[in-house]
Amino acid sequence: MSTFQLTFANDQLGDFNSVGLVISISPPSIDQQLRINNNHPADRLIAAGAITSRADVTGWRLTVTGSQDPAGNTAVPFAPIVVEYSTDGGTSWNSFTADIGRPDLVYFARQDEADWMAITAIDLTQPDGQTGFIVSNFPVTPGQIFQTDESVLEPQIGEFLIPCFASDTLIRTASGEMRVDAITAGTLVWTEDRGLRPVAWAGQRHLDANMLDRAPHLRPILIRAGALGEGAPERNLRLSPQHRVLVRSKVAERMFGATEVLVAARHLLDLPGVEIDRDATGVTYVHLLFDRHELLRSNGLVTESLYTGRQALKAVGAAARREIAMLFPEILDLDHDPQPARPLTRGRRARQMVARHHQRGKPLLAAQV
Question: What's the distance, CA 224 to chain centroid?
Fold first, then answer.
């Protein structure tokens, strides 16, 4: 663990909106664009009565605590950040969160790029459940676009992360295969590690044709029967782009030190038989949550249940987060760090692993390793 401080002037901060993704199919990648809006973090201090104008703030200080990632970046995702501001040229520093009336609010690294950082905090009082802003090495102005660079850090796409099944998916349960949209809390579902387990919570979100046209990055990924290996899946399967599937192979072992890992469906797009479902005129996405992260059988393919990491919890929406927090209040703990069912692969390394399987003609789900 390491702690370091960064200081910024008023004109180096700005609130942002997530405005879209830059999508490349070959090689498959998704970079997010963030646009600076007309608001500023100092406006929240004005609203709380801590200052009277933006000009009262003479500087900002971020104290970052967290381990460096393997590439040597300065802040890994979710590294906690203490935000402070000064009104006397840096002689003294005041707590930003305390002075906006939210001393419980803790900011985390969302993206850490070469010259700027986007930070957010889970805030269930906000409509989308989060608040945040950008800090930059250069002045920022309203309308300015910041685009993530996956070569620096795998982008976290906040509210666009929806790890879930399309509603026509068949899930193995105690009663046989059942459509996922018919599963409710208490349904006994087969898990790879613990046998039959009851569903703790199930949620749904429908995206109509208009929404899919406006946000094509939310279109389901279609994995055709047998695309990942014999019987994997047994029939065509549609998942949200961020939903992870199990990979079992020697390639995975060599790259990640584990024979079984989880990879997002969108990182499989370079494989024959895996494609964006551009014909979908609407989709209902379904989440299944257990008392821990589980592996399920969906159309015969091993895939994940809802993972209660911070980014995934942002994706389900504020109302769903409140329901989940009633069942598992520990998710609101600042040190909540759930154990995934298998190691999670990310970004470029995940795509490299998939490409190596394709180049060598190896199935992603080997019968034995």
Answer: 25
